[in-house]
Design a protein that fits this description.
Elements: H1 2-16, H2 33-44, E1 57-64, E2 70-74, H3 86-97, E3 105-113, E4 116-124, H4 133-145, E5 150-151, E6 155-158, E7 194-200, E8 210-213, E9 219-223, E10 226-228, E11 233-241, E12 247-256, E13 262-267, H5 271-285, E14 289-290, E15 295-297, E16 305-311, H6 315-318, H7 320-323, H8 328-343, H9 349-362, H10 386-397, H11 403-409, E17 411-412, E18 432-439, E19 442-449, E20 458-465, H12 471-490
Parallel strand pairs: 4-5, 4-6, 5-14, 6-15, 9-12, 10-12
Antiparallel strand pairs: 1-2, 1-20, 3-4, 3-16, 7-8, 7-13, 11-12, 17-18, 18-19, 19-20
Length: 491
C-alpha cells in the first residue's frame, strides 16, 4: 500500500511540474531584496547564545530555481559536515548514471545433474539493498519448480560485485553500537543486514523468557530475561560479533506473563553467513535437501546454470528509502553500485565517490571543498558546502528526466518521512520537500520550497555544525527559513 501511494504521488508530482522551466529556458530576474533582508535577519539573530559561539559553524544558501540567482548566502562556500544531506549527492548521481528504471538482479546458480546440484549452490548478488529473506524463499521455490530436489554440497555466496570492505568509512567510530543504522554492506545482503529477534513471556511468572530469531543457527544467545507478573515489558538486548561470523545477543530484564511478543532489530556482522543460512533454510523449506551445512564465499563455477532469478523493483520505486527514510544501508549500497557500474567490479566506495564527483562536474556544480568518503553521511566522514548542495538541487530540478523522481523521493514537510513531524503548520507544509541530516553536533536541511501555483521556487541549504549541540536553535532556524521561502511563494 505504501509503495503504491508513493508511486501515485510521484505520478501526480510529474504532472504538476510539467509547467516548470527546464535547462536553458529564458527567465526574468526577480528582485529578491526584501526576501534577502528577511533571511539575513533570521540567520544573524538566531539565539545561539555566547557559549563557545566562536566554534559554531553555519552555512546557508538560497537559490532562485528559475534564474540561478543567489537570493541569500551566509558562509555558503564553507565545507561542513552535511550528515545525511550527503545522500542527496548519491541520489542525484544514481538517477543520472543508473537511470530511474535501473533494476538489480540476484541469481541462484548450480552445476545441474538432473534433479541434483553437484557441489555447492551459489547465490550471486549485485548489491540489491531491497533484497529480503522472502525473496530468497521465492528463489528457492523457483529452483524447486525446475525439478531440483537436492544440493550435494553446501551454500556458496558470490559477492564479488563489491569489494570485501564490510564497514563503510568512519563506521568504526562507534564499535559498540548495535543499532541497524550502522549495518555493514555486502553485494549479497538480505533484510538490510539486520536480524529481527522476537521475545515473549514464558508460561508463568519465574519462567525464562522465550525468543525466536531467523535464520536458525545464526544468533548465539545468552538469555537472562525472566517472565514476571503483569503485562509490562522491561526487556533489554545487546548484540555483538560472535564466533565464526555469528551475531551474539545478550537478552536480560523481564517481560510480563500477559505481555505481547515484541521484536528487536539489530545489525549483524557477517552478511555472507546471514544470507547463506537464510538461503539454506529457504531451500530446505522448498523441498530441496542441502547435504552440507557449510556456508562459504566463492564464484559461480564454470558450466553452472541459472536455477532462479530475482529482479529488484526499479530505482525510482525505492529511492525514497534514501530520501524520506534516510536509510544509511541503502545509500552505502547505491554508492558501491555506482562504482561497479562505471568503474567495473568490484564496486568500492571510493569509485562511487569518483562517479558522484564526475556527475557534479558535468552539471557545472562546484565541488570545491567536497569530501565524500561514505554515502550515508554517518559520523565524521563527509564535507560539502551549501553552495554545492543548492547548485546540485537546481541542476536536478532543471532536468525534466530526473526532476519528478528526485522530488518524489524527498520528505514532504509536515506529511511524511523525516519531516512528518516538522513544519506541520504554516506555509511550508507540503510545499517544502527536503532532506534532513542529524548527528550529535550536526543539523542539516537542504531541499526545495515549491510554489503552489507552478511557478519556480527556491533551492536552499542550511548546514549547522555546533559542538555545543543547540539542536532546538538549529532546527528552528532551518524551519523558519523554509517557512519564509514558502510564504514568499504564496504571495
Amino acid at each position: 500500500m505504501r509503495r503504491a501511494t508513493i508511486a501515485l504521488a510521484a505520478a501526480g508530482l510529474a504532472a504538476a511540474l510539467c509547467a516548470l522551466p527546464v535547462r536553458g529556458e529564458d527567465t526574468t530576474a526577480a528582485d529578491h531584496s526584501a526576501l534577502r533582508t528577511k533571511l539575513e535577519r533570521l540567520v544573524e539573530h538566531a539565539p545561539w547564545g555566547d557559549r563557545r559561539r566562536d566554534e559554531l559553524q553555519v552555512g546557508v544558501e538560497v537559490l532562485d530555481l528559475a534564474t540561478g540567482d543567489v537570493v541569500y548566502g551566509h558562509h555558503a562556500d564553507r565545507a561542513l559536515n552535511p550528515a545525511s544531506n550527503a545522500k542527496l549527492l548519491v541520489m542525484a548521481a544514481a538517477l543520472e548514471i543508473l537511470g530511474p528504471a535501473f533494476t538489480i538482479p540476484t541469481t541462484l546458480h548450480g552445476l545441474r545433474e538432473g534433479d541434483t546440484v553437484a557441489g555447492d549452490v551459489v547465490l550471486r548478488g549485485h548489491g540489491d539493498p531491497t533484497l529480503t529473506a522472502e525473496d530468497l524463499w521465492t528463489l528457492a521455490r523457483e529452483a524447486r519448480a525446475t525439478g531440483i530436489t537436492r544440493v550435494r554440497g553446501g551454500i556458496r555466496i558470490d559477492d564479488a560485485y563489491f569489494d570485501d570492505a564490510r564497514l563503510p568509512y568512519a563506521y568504526d567510530s562507534q564499535p559498540g553500537e548495535d543499532a541497524t543504522f550502522r549495518a555493514p554492506v555486502g553485494a549479497a545482503s538480505i533484510d538490510a543486514n539486520a536480524v529481527e529477534v522476537w521475545i515473549g513471556p514464558g508460561t508463568e511468572a519465574g519462567d525464562p523468557a522465550r525468543f525466536f530469531a531467523w535464520p536458525e543457527g545464526f544468533l548465539e544467545t545468552n538469555l537472562e530475561a525472566r517472565t514476571a507478573a503483569g503485562g509490562g515489558n522491561a526487556l533489554r538486548m545487546y548484540a555483538s560479533a560472535g564466533a565464526d561470523g555469528a551475531t551474539h545477543a545478550r537478552i536480560w530484564g523481564s517481560i510480563g506473563v500477559g505481555a505481547a511478543w515484541d521484536s528487536y532489530a539489530r545489525r549483524i556482522d557477517d552478511p555472507v553467513r546471514f544470507a547463506g543460512l537464510a538461503l539454506r533454510e529457504a531451500l530446505r523449506a522448498a523441498g530441496i535437501a542441502v547435504d552440507d551445512d557449510r556456508v562459504a564465499t566463492g564464484s559461480v563455477p564454470d558450466g553452472a546454470t541459472v536455477l532462479a532469478r530475482h529482479e529488484s523493483d526499479p530505482l525510482h520505486a525505492w529511492l525514497w528509502r534514501l530520501g524520506k527514510e534516510s536509510s544509511n544501508f541503502h545509500a552505502e549500497q547505491v554508492l558501491r553500485i555506482l562504482g561497479a557500474e562505471r568503474r567495473g567490479t568490484p564496486g568500492t566506495a571510493d569509485h562511487g565517490a569518483e562517479v558522484v564527483r564526475e556527475v557534479l562536474e558535468a552539471w557545472n556544480v562546484p565541488t570545491d571543498g567536497l569530501v565524500l568518503r561514505n554515502g550515508s553521511g554517518l559520523f565524521a566522514a563527509d564535507e560539502v558546502t551549501p553552495r554545492t548542495l543548492t547548485a546540485l538541487l537546481r541542476a536536478v530540478y532543471l532536468d525534466a528526466a530526473l526532476r519528478a523522481e528526485f522530488l518524489a523521493a524527498l520528505a514532504v514537510a509536515g506529511r511524511d518521512g523525516t519531516l512528518h513531524s516538522r513544519l506541520r503548520d504554516g506555509a511550508a507544509r507540503e510545499l517544502v520537500r527536503a532532506k534532513t541530516g542529524t548527528l550529535a553536533a550536526v543539523w542539516a536541511l537542504s531541499g526545495y520550497a515549491l510554489s503552489p501555483d507552478g511557478r519556480a521556487g527556491y533551492a536552499f541549504s542550511v548546514l549547522v555544525n555546533d559542538p555545543c549541540r543547540r539542536r532546538d536553535t538549529a532546527r528552528a532556524l532551518q524551519d523558519d527559513l523554509a517557512t519564509t521561502l514558502a510564504a514568499e511563494l504564496e504571495r
